[in-house]
Design goal:
Blueprint: H1 2-14, H2 22-31, E1 37-38, E2 41-46, H3 51-57, E3 61-69, E4 75-83, H4 85-90, H5 93-98, E5 102-114, E6 120-130, E7 137-145, H6 156-159, E8 166-175, H7 185-194, H8 207-212
Antiparallel strand pairs: 1-2, 2-3, 3-4, 4-8, 5-6, 6-7, 7-8
Length: 213
């Protein structure tokens, strides 16, 4: 009985069965402090996630925003969620977009973006094609972090299983026909985001600690 009770309590805390833990609440509040101006990118819209998505992801908090680059007019849609590792890890864009009339044009590849301290962050990048021939292609980046350094994990459910919280970033950038890959707006947004005076919290390693190592 003691083993069963202990296991139930541990699983309940990990899955946030009794609501978000204080650290998760603090991390969720910090997400809302993501700047409205990131480099040359300006916030133009904030959207709510559906109740179904929130229940499926079990997220303690999220942002779901659209930014526009003032000098080019390019836009990106970025969502960052925080919650228990299990559901936060398993839902990838390949799954989500396949149910929204998109197909994979280019399989995911690892992309690296460095912040101002020289720390490399890893993201998965994939190109999606709409079943509507008049619609633009999407370049989607996504990654996870438990300590502030984004990782393109092969097995996020196992890699982050021991963490109380997990963050996931997913960003989509429309690619007009003829757009060269070198001018990808998603890559530019990620560089500005990583160099902004903001980062996800609830992590065990601060930016200063990472820079010191």
């Amino acid at each position: 009985m003691l083993i069963t009770l202990t296991t139930g309590i541990v699983c309940g805390r990990i899955s946030h069965r009794w609501g978000p833990a204080p650290d998760a609440i603090a991390a969720a509040r910090n997400l809302e402090q993501l700047p409205k101006q990131i480099g040359d990118w300006k916030l133009v819209r904030s959207d709510k996630m559906s109740d179904f998505a929130l229940a499926t992801l079990m997220c303690a908090g999220y942002i779901n925003r659209t930014y526009v680059e003032q000098s080019t007019g390019d836009s990106v849609s970025v969502a960052i969620i925080v919650g228990p590792p299990g559901p936060t890890a398993v839902h990838t864009p390949e799954i989500c977009y396949s149910s929204r009339d998109y197909a994979i044009k280019e399989s995911r590849q690892a992309a690296r973006v460095s912040d101002r301290s020289g720390v490399d962050h890893g993201f998965w990048k994939t190109i999606l094609r709409s079943t509507d021939p008049t619609a633009e292609q999407l370049c989607v980046f996504y990654a996870w972090t438990a300590d502030g350094r984004w990782i393109a994990s092969e097995s996020p459910r196992f890699e982050f299983a021991g963490n109380p919280l997990l963050f996931k970033l997913q960003m989509a950038a429309p690619l007009p026909p003829g757009r060269v890959k070198e001018s990808n707006p998603g890559q530019r947004f990620l560089m500005d985001l990583l160099n902004a005076d903001w980062e996800v919290t609830g992590s065990t390693t601060s930016r200063e600690q990472r820079e010191a190592t």
